[in-house]
Amino acid sequence: MAGAPTPDGVREQPSPSQIDISREQLIPLADVPGQLPLTASGKKVSRSAVHRWITRGLGDVRLEYLQVGRRRCTSVAALQRFLERLTAARAAGHRVVAAATPPAPSDAAVRRAEQERATLALRQLLRGTSANTEGRGS
Question: Rounded CA gap, 44 and 40, in Å?
């Protein structure tokens, strides 16, 4: 059972992979774009897209990988399984899209928010000052 303590008290972590290195040749994630056909726009799949496939996946489908030292690796067979699962999910009518990342606010939006915050703080300060001055006049 994944996550159950072992006899030495260490918890087992669920494996992100079904890759069997005794039967599958590992390839670094950086080499994955060269293993795939070009996109519709004639470009290679980006390395960041491959990274998203292992971290967020497409829908519920993730690319298997193994951590080898500081590098993450996958295999051609794992790519095959990933693409087959994507194909099956789409054929079953599931929407297979990457998880959306909210866009970062633009510099102008950040400046506007800071200006609004400063204006609000100044108004509150002035209201507090005028309330204090009114009380002293009696």
Answer: 9
DSSP H helices in the chain: 47-55, 76-91, 107-136
Strand, helix or coil for residue 137 = coil
In Å, what is the CA distance from 40 to each residue of 37, 57, 90, 132? 9, 20, 18, 68
Question: Residue for token digits 């703080």?
Answer: 121
Question: What DSSP element (H or E) covers 113?
Answer: helix 107-136
- Alpha-carbon gap, residue 33 to 26, rounded angstroms: 14
pTM score, whole prediction: 0.58
Per residue in 93-112, pLDDT (tens digit) is 876 665 555 566 677 777 88
